[in-house]
């Protein structure tokens, strides 16, 4: 019975891992080999596909889009952690706002493409960087995760600091911030991934060449040359690697924080 | 009595630190403007004939009347239901089986980390990997084994979207069940074993009933995920073949931003939101009654 479980787990794990292995492999297939169809024949890894990516001007090409997306998603992450940390503190200190955040948590942002478009148009933010950043500057999910973390901080600790004359700034910066490091990192990675993975939204509100995200860039390339997978795979790998590395670095904290959040 | 006493009590407790209330202001304002307001404002857009470029023209409930007679709407509604029906059961079954098989194994942490990864990685990149791997014409897999023609058969195209959706979210499902599983006291299952129950009986009569809240949560989450699957549709099949994978979300996107009927798309949004809500409520009630 037990070995059946092992086989099942490793079978599923192999299937889940397969697209990753393929992505890593395909990025280095020499172009000639793709066109002859001899994909799994003698494999001589080549960097030709990455060279193709660099052909266009830097900012319009792949690498510029990658840097731009890193900056955009990075700023959104910092903003969400900042607004979320403050809001979580506020609830922890007695503000009766938890219901508000739970209600906003239940609103599916994915379905609000049309009214968001209308709102951004009204604010004259369409096709500006702000369209990618402002609507994501606060996230009810991050507020919730951080609040959950703060709930675990003993009241006596904060009370003692308060008696010593600590103000909000000391409580936030010198006590809660270091104590919540794990939750902040986990929430940060999740926030980053969620923004990084937006596909349709940036297409709609930020289509101008200077503010295209890497996702839009790859999807465009896929639509133009669906059969040219050397460069496509190289772009996919290069765009995926930052997230994989980020995840691997903090994987334990992310999974733990997640499980912790599910219990509450 | 208690109700009248409460404000005083809380003032006594929170009075000196009430200034902390203001710290929530940025988050509240931002969410109010970019989430709550659009959520309400969509009603106003839905009464417009509006392309986004021209000035809007109010047309009352005309959009809704058209939706009721729109064959494409019913078709995408049907596709969404079929897709949910083929995606939800394997999602829940796999989550439970994997969580059970992983529980307490030395490789538990490593495998969980791997299963969770697809949900985080670049969606566009993942779609490229899937596309080049599974494309029936020039995909890598097609060079080794025959791949069903999902570019010509609606059924296989839906299966492909289902597999992609499962691939992305199975890690989350496993975590949900696993967190619940860990909360079940070992003494319970051990006592059952002592009383002569075999592992299957222990699972059926002890573990499964205690997993019920996690399963309820999975059904709700799974429903939301299938409604969001239209990004996968956009990336892998573009609604084809023959519009057969056009789920509601994709139909909404197409109508609004490819055809440019934003007012109509707003009305579709309202209808989809109402359907989602009704669906979630019905599920919640059903699951509660079962218990």
Give your account of this protein's structure.
The complex is a heterodimer of chains A (264) and B (291). By secondary structure, chain A is mostly helical. Chain A folds into 2 domains: 46 residues, no CATH class; 206 residues, Orthogonal Bundle (MetI-like fold), CATH 1.10.3720. Helix content of chain A is 73%, strand content 0%. Chain A contains 14 helices and no strands. In chain A, helix 4 crosses helix 8 and helix 4 crosses helix 13. The two termini of chain A are 34 Å apart. The model of chain A has no long low-confidence stretch (mean pLDDT 87). Chain B is mostly helical and 291 residues long. Chain B has one domain: Orthogonal Bundle (MetI-like fold). Chain B has 12 helices and 2 strands, in the order H-H-E-E-H-H-H-H-H-H-H-H-H-H. Chain B has a two-stranded antiparallel ribbon with strand order 1-2. In chain B, helix 4 packs antiparallel against helix 9, helix 8 packs antiparallel against helix 9 and helix 11 packs antiparallel against helix 12. The two termini of chain B are 35 Å apart. The N terminus of chain B is likely disordered. Chains A and B meet through helix 1, helix 4, helix 5, helix 6 and helix 11 of A and helix 1, helix 2, helix 4, helix 5 and helix 6 of B. Chain A: Belongs to the binding-protein-dependent transport system permease family. Chain A: Keywords: Cell membrane, Membrane, Transmembrane, Transmembrane helix, Transport. Chain A: This is Lactose transport system permease protein LacG. Chain A: Its main location: membrane. Chain A: It is found in: Cell membrane. Chain B: One of its GO terms (cellular component) is plasma membrane.
